[in-house]
Amino acid sequence: MTSPPPASLSAAPLRFHLLASTIQLSFPPKCRPVAARNLSIRRRFRSSCAFASHSPPPSAASQRWDTLTARFAGASNLPFLLIQLPQILLNYRNLVYGNKAALLAVPWLGMLTGLLGNMTLLSYFAKKKEVEAIVVQTLGVVSIYVVLGQLAMAEAMSLPYFAAISVLVVSGLVLNFVNYFGWLHEGLWQLWEDFITVAGISVLPQVMWSTFVPFIPKSILPGTICCIIAVGAIILARLGKLSDRMVKFIRSISGWTATLLFMWMPIAQMWTTYLNPDNIKGLSAFTILLGMIGNGLMIPRALFIRDLMWFTGASWASFLHGWGNLACMYYFKSISWKFFLGATLSLFVWTGIALWRDTKAYGYSSPMISLQELVSGT
């Protein structure tokens, strides 16, 4: 009789797909939507309105860098896929061998939080026509949904919850892709934006609060209070009781809540490591490295199109969740100095190259000008 597979489960990956959401009112600046991706470099370059808004006509060097950054963002799918596949395959083996108890170690609420973040960012990138980022977010939604389906099969989550999640996933994917091609009514899309805004504002404070339990009382009040506030703000905006500036802020906040949610995940991981240093042995250095690579590949694109939200999330995930956790592992002698040195040099050199090439693409003399434009949005 073949022995059952090990029950240990790999840590869920942090992928900074959630780097932005359904927000076109405040940023990026409005531009004429592109009906479909054009393979022409020049046409593609014009679609990046954030770039075109403060630069001279594109040069050959800037067009090449525009194409390369898009390919880098698309290539980030590979490390993210390599992160998720082992978890899915392990769950499948446990189900085949009847080892359903192993799947109880996977927190379905945490997976659902990641699913919400990916769906939010999918909406954002679909509006920006960033095809490579759309693929990344879609992969995140589908892979997490597959894991949730496995948990439902193992009875680790109730079927009514999974059914509700299935409706959310199918509706979200359909709405996003129909909206991508400009076939969706604006009122229906606004309802979807309102939903993810309320969900994001409700989930973020609840996750932050739960991180410090049992040092603080276990409670759902943070999420409940923020949900009531979010619903009230949406109603006031719909009734025209708020200023245009406040309406724009409400429309943009869902993306930042998704970004902050993913930014909080490494903090929660480090807090857990601080409280229980022995738990660091359960972390996979290879998984963390893959997450760092995937997010790092998106940094040049986010910088090039001057997307502050995307850049913030990708950089945070690369440096804090990726390199920061590797630094903790090195400190506790869980990885060798050669592994840590190689990861450190790779990340910092790659970031330096991204800043240097972006500076050359825009024809500037210093990367600080690029960063200043990124932050100011001008």
From TrEMBL:
Alphabetized InterPro entries for the sequence: MEX1/MEX1-like
PANTHER family: MALTOSE EXCESS PROTEIN 1, CHLOROPLASTIC-RELATED
Name of the protein: Maltose excess protein 1-like, chloroplastic
Organism: Musa acuminata subsp. malaccensis (Wild banana)
Keyword Ubl conjugation listed: no
Keywords annotated in UniProt: Membrane, Transmembrane, Transmembrane helix
Transmembrane spans: 102-126, 133-153, 159-183, 195-213, 219-237, 249-268, 280-298, 338-356
The keyword Membrane is assigned to this record: yes
